[in-house]
Amino acid sequence: MSSLSLAVRDSNTMLRRNLLHARRYPSLTLNLLLTPIMLLLLFVYIFGDVMSAGIGGADRADYIAYIVPGILMLTIGGTTVGTAVSISMDMTEGIIARFRTMAIHRGSVLIGHVIGSVLQSIMSVVFVGAVALAIGFRSTDAMILEWILAIGLLTLVALALTWIAVGMGLVSPNAEAASNNAMPLILLPLLSSAFIPVDTMPGWFQPFAEYQPFTPAIETLRGLLLGTEIGNNGWLVIGWCLVLAVLGYLWSSSVFNRDQK
Amino acid sequence: MPSPVMPTSKRANGKDGTAAVSAVGLRKSYGERLVLDGIDLRIPAGSVFALLGPNGAGKTTAVKILSTLITADAGDLRVGGHDLAADPQAVRAAIGVTGQFSAVDGLITGEENMLLMADLHHLSRAEGRRSAAELLERFDLTDAAKKPASTYSGGMKRRLDLAMTLVGGPRIIFLDEPTTGLDPRSRHNMWGIIRGLVSDGVTVFLTTQYLEEADELADRIAVLNDGRIAAEGSAEELKRLIPGGHIRLRFTDPATYQSAAFALREVTRDDEALALQIPSGGSQRELRSILDWLDSADIEADELTVHTPDLDDVFFALTGPANIPNQTKEDVR
């Protein structure tokens, strides 16, 4: 069997294993969905009136439109925290040692996790998106092309963050440590333009907020769904995603292939 | 760094072409701690080899290296005819490994675990199902096949673990302490299973800290102590290595015991049990001379037993704290 078809076949087997885990034990996935949904409802219904005034909008509907792209990105961040946790738990399982002694494609264990996690991210985004629609979010500007680009963008972000999360999970000795190590993935969206525009933040903080990966991702998604200015954010987010994905992949692979104690 | 090649008895046993596992000068250290200090192993195909040693002797490290989990620092290592360093993937295709800690996926069922293995061995769907069902049946797991593996008892997990190892029909199997933590019944079941594998011509490399287990199962036994092979041979050969045999005299009357102990002098005393041990290989001639000696000294014990050396004696003699020379070697390093 050629090494490519071996890689595809074994990764597919590992993907099925991870999807089986997710299906059997959906509680972790569902728990991770709670955070973005709670934040969405909290910001819209509790803080919504003040916040909408803050962004210069007329009412709460304007604020729903403003925060949904950020909430969707935060959903991906949250799902990838789950990836870090499940990777670290999986690595403590004896079966990983068994996989290492089998003549299978070396990377398939991680690739299976990554594809499974990206699919889970997309499903979570769809779920949170449905909640957003239910409370009144409407995409004012997106046609077919924009929708396709938006889904592509969400997938790319999910892929990049998942590879980073896999690395974080691999270096964590247990689930608690993994959850802590992956915290930036869910904290960074709070320090982006998800909830308030960057130019309303303190001046010293603006450069960080503006160029960290989540802000260009959110601004690009906002532009695709709502027709706001995307500017160079599109290129920024693609650049960030490629860099993070490649770094995450190299990091994860080197940690995974290291000698085990 | 290449280790010196040992001119040992490898040629002598004349089976050069058929070693399933061979190691020459295997070394491994973790930082400052030397775990394996140049061990040599040669396991003929189709035989059972037991690596015996106390906890921390390096047994698991040896298995992890030979099963490609970790890399050795030095040594010429071949498994299934493939060089471990050059072609680990070919080695992996030839072996099956059941580690010390259960290598089953607890979140999915026993059957799903088996089918996962079948998929990873690239068996066709039908073939995979057949092989899974057969092995589950053989290991008495059919009733539990649809339950999550995390709900299995220790013995069931070990059986599932071994069943998973056998998917794809590996010709060389590593079993790291296969019966540790099992109750006596499960242990005997496991022994039966291992004997079954051997009768199919599979080479088995097992580690154990139970002498009885090595004695029961293994064609050859190596005693690993402090990172070195302290002795190697069949159970019988090992027993012969150690002059552990003795004659035990037991007395009921303390006064008789005291006078006998005084008269015999060169014996090991057990004041608690009122027993004396006289070293002896257990041959008829030796026995007669001891009896004559006892008669001439006018000693009459209430009970006389002849104790022949067993693997316990070998083990304690080779791995006990009395065996200090290894320590000095370590210091020289």
UniProtKB/TrEMBL annotation, chain A:
Keyword set includes Chloroplast: no
Location of this chain's protein in the cell: Cell membrane; Membrane
Domain ABC transmembrane type-2: 27-259
UniProt KW keywords: Antibiotic resistance, Cell membrane, Membrane, Transmembrane, Transmembrane helix, Transport
InterPro entries associated with the record: ABC2_TM (IPR013525), ABC2_TM_bact-type (IPR047817), ABC_2_transport (IPR000412), Nod_factor_ABC_transporter (IPR051784)
Transmembrane feature ranges: 25-48, 63-88, 109-135, 147-171, 183-205, 234-252
A matching Pfam family: ABC2_membrane
Main location class: membrane
Protein name from the UniProt record: Transport permease protein
Species of origin: Streptomyces camponoticapitis
TrEMBL record, chain B:
Pfam families: ABC_tran (PF00005)
Keywords recorded for this protein, A-Z: Antibiotic resistance, ATP-binding, Nucleotide-binding, Transport
Localization terms from the record: Cell membrane
ABC transporter domain ranges (all copies): 21-251
Domain of life: Bacteria
Record flagged with keyword ATP-binding: yes
An MF annotation (GO) of this entry: ATP binding
Topological relation to the membrane, as annotated: Peripheral membrane protein
Listed name of the protein: Daunorubicin resistance protein DrrA family ABC transporter ATP-binding protein
Protein source organism: Streptomyces camponoticapitis
Taxonomic path: Bacteria, Bacillati, Actinomycetota, Actinomycetes, Kitasatosporales
